[in-house]
Design a protein that fits this description.
Layout: E1 4-8, H1 13-29, E2 32-40, H2 49-52, H3 57-82, E3 87-95, H4 97-108, E4 112-116, H5 121-127, H6 131-138, E5 143-146, E6 161-164, H7 169-185, E7 189-195, H8 206-236, E8 241-248, H9 251-262, E9 266-270, H10 275-281, H11 285-292, E10 297-300
Parallel strand pairs: 1-2, 1-4, 2-3, 4-5, 6-7, 6-9, 7-8, 9-10
Antiparallel strand pairs: 5-10
Helix pairs in contact: 4-6, 9-11
């Protein structure tokens, strides 16, 4: 599944952690590792009209950016190699970072993109419109966003893996990815299904309230059966599932909460962005988990999510 891993680096502490994780995964999975650094070339519309009228201006900016990217890339690739990475290809690019990373991933046929998150703390996580969030929404392949806080200089792997399931095609692909990674590195695998619930409505008649309670109990029973069946299916296919969890509440909140309780090393979740428009507008559970999780989040897109 992860024959080619594309690591995006920018020299930040989050990027360094992402590099270590990409090296760990590529080595254990036998993946081909590529490294890219993108220098952000500002839009020509940020400059005066006289400069914009110069037909060669944009190309000069791009060449200058690529030269700068090559200089920075040499240092970053050195760090990757020091961490034990076997680098198959290096790519110095100038442009808009998220767009160029997505473009290069498609060009290479990458099976996984790894990059660091630039969100520091709750406020920045809540408003993050970062490169990592954009790549997770738009890339054709799985994206691993590595958070910079929580583990210092320690390696994330082979810590616990938390797999979030919701019955979608993307979640099925996420299950395959989680099983492959946990089997390769020996991580403890947990699965969770979060059942959205609403507060008990203030019905005017007590019998109406009893009907709501009965409906909730049926939903909880069905959800428990679902997550247990999925765990059993994964075990039948060779995965070792430590525990199957049922959470009640807002799915993004509950997944992040359980990830913290388990001290998970990775949360694996399917993306529900189906097609270009849905990706552009996505305010989904996976998008929220990427912003708020304390640990790296692997967002998986199923084949039908195009």
């Amino acid at each position: 599944m992860f024959e080619i891993v594309l690591l995006a680096v920018d020299g930040s502490p989050e990027s360094d952690r992402a590099a270590r994780m990409a090296v760990e995964l590529a080595n254990v999975l036998g993946s081909e590792l590529h490294v890219v650094h993108v220098v952000d070339v500002s839009s020509v519309y940020a400059y005066s009209g006289a400069i914009i009228l110069d037909p060669e201006f944009k190309e000069r900016m791009r060449k200058r950016g690529k030269s700068e990217a090559r200089e920075r890339l040499d240092e970053q690739v050195g760090k990757v190699k020091e961490a034990g990475g076997r680098v198959a290809g290096v790519h110095a690019v100038a442009g808009r970072p998220d767009a160029e990373i997505v473009r290069l991933a498609e060009e290479l046929g990458a099976g996984l993109v790894v990059l660091g998150s630039r969100g520091f703390g709750p406020l920045k996580r809540a408003v993050m419109g970062s490169v990592s969030g954009s790549v997770a929404r738009h890339a054709h392949c799985p994206v691993l966003v590595v958070r910079g806080d929580g583990r210092g200089e320690e390696n994330y792997l082979p810590g616990r893996i938390l797999l979030a399931l919701d019955g979608s095609e993307d979640a099925a692909a996420a299950a395959n990815a989680a099983a492959e990674i946990s089997g390769a590195i020996g991580s403890e695998l947990h699965v969770v299904h979060a059942l959205p619930t609403e507060p008990r409505p203030p019905y005017p008649h007590p019998f109406a309230g009893e009907g709501w309670e009965a409906g909730l109990e049926r939903a909880k029973h069905d959800a428990r059966a679902f997550v247990d069946r999925r765990a059993e299916r994964m075990e039948a296919e060779g995965a070792e599932v430590k525990d199957a969890h049922l959470a009640l509440g807002e799915p993004d909140h509950e997944i992040v909460k359980l990830g913290e309780e388990l001290d998970a090393a990775i949360i694996v979740i399917g993306s529900r962005g189906l097609g270009g428009m849905r990706r552009a507008l996505m305010g989904s559970v996976s998008d929220s988990v990427v912003r708020h999780a304390h640990c790296p989040v692997l967002v998986i897109r199923g084949e039908g999510s195009g």
